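Allow me, if you will, to draw on your knowledge of protein folds for a short while. I have a record of one protein: its chain in single-letter code and its fold written as discrete structure tokens. I remain grateful for any guidance, and I place the record below:
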Amino acid sequence: IAISDILPRVEHRNCVRHVFANWSVRKLGKSYECDFW
């Protein structure tokens, strides 16, 4: 189930901190941190 399935007419955004945290979990690490910000 996705947010867009439950709330189809509501805009959904991701917090930049959470997006980067997901990147870190995938071990992209510090090399991409400067490019990201």
Notes: Residues 12 and 30 are 27 Å apart (CA to CA). The chain has a mean pLDDT of 71. The chain is about 60% helix and 0% strand.
